[in-house]
Specification:
single chain; 285 residues; Rossmann fold; 9 strands
Amino acid sequence: MGDEGRGRRGAPVTATGTASPEVVRTVEGPRGPVAYQRTGSGAPVLLLAGLGSRARLWGELPRVLSDRFTVLAPDNRGVGGSRGGAPFTLDGAADDAALVVADAGLGAAGVLGVSMGGLVACRLAVRHPDAVHRLAVASCAARLTPSHRRVMRFFELAFTRLEPAEAAEAFMAFAFGSAFADRFPGFVDQAARLWTLDPEDRPGALAQLHHLGAGWDVRAELATIGCPTLVLAGELDPIVPAAATRELAAAIPEARYREVPGAAHSVLAEGGAALLAEVVEFLST
């Protein structure tokens, strides 16, 4: 594992100027349809979001990146345009991601995955190494621990006993550190809206959750990742503790580990412009 770093915090990054046109494509694969948004021009960057998420979860990030990259942002298996087909699995999600990279036709991609999407990104690098140029993952764990199983139970209760907007509001209490949430309440409100499940996506989100709840341990496979890797964690993340993300980083040969002080689960947003610039530079190298 490379040097551990801590960075300066800042305001959430927003897009400026004229937005690049966004194209939504659906590719039919052996596991069913995979829908993804394609924005911008340049080298490809694949964005893999977390539990229950469509591409819209990324908010303005695809537009922010689109001046420099061709941004590919799929809907996860079971939600949005990727509903139907085979049940969700981590390996299947990695295969779906490889299909998106191949459909884009731009060669190996820089891959940025967060939370469950970070785990999928790691599986992509293991199963389809030719699809991944550089790998950046945030707020994800190499294995399911007892404390993480309790987090899975929270999401199960939220998805089944609360209305989607209520579940999203509940999650916001853990998604952002208190200092960030107090400073940028409007940003947190917008994040809650983006994370709110459409009713037709609830079965797919629960299928993802149930697959994760069965457990995973990818520490041995992570040792086979050969591309440059950057691993990000929030110091105060209550969903995936920094120690768990640090363990994942330690399992990947020569991975760089970066911990953002005071950040919770949404480390990319909480890290502000300085962290985003570091990630962009890493993916561009």
